[in-house]
Amino acid sequence: MARDLAKELYRAFRNQPRRNKITESSEVRGHVTDPQSIGSVLDELVVSRDWRQGLAEGNIFIDWEKIVGAEIAGHSTPISLLEGVLTIQTSSTAWATQLNLISSDLLKTISSSAPGALVEKLTLIGPHAPTWKKGLRTIRGAKGPRDTYG
């Protein structure tokens, strides 16, 4: 008996005409089935998901050469941007020192080139030095390559 009632309700539900729900955003844009440009759809997506700051911060990495110039970009690379601190790795310690001296001007240039990005501080690091802390012939507490083999 309950099974027959469930089947009957299911058939009634299935045979009902479907109604399309019209949301506010589709009313503003026009008819739901009207074609739209990809750019306008992506702009709407960026605004609705609040991705503007993230995109502006990503553009710093993409447009690094345009922002700082070819000479500086040839000797430096942005590594990370976390909590307003942009970490830049340089090709030498001399470049790290020079960029540290002009860091305030560099920060102003970055802020004007990427207005939506939140960059409050620059951290400049030199090139990575080789490490001798891992491998077959290492000793705990060793002082480097001259102390590796005993």
UniProtKB/TrEMBL annotation:
InterPro entries: DciA-like. It holds the Pfam family DciA. PANTHER family: UPF0232 PROTEIN SCO3875. This is Unannotated protein. It comes from freshwater metagenome.
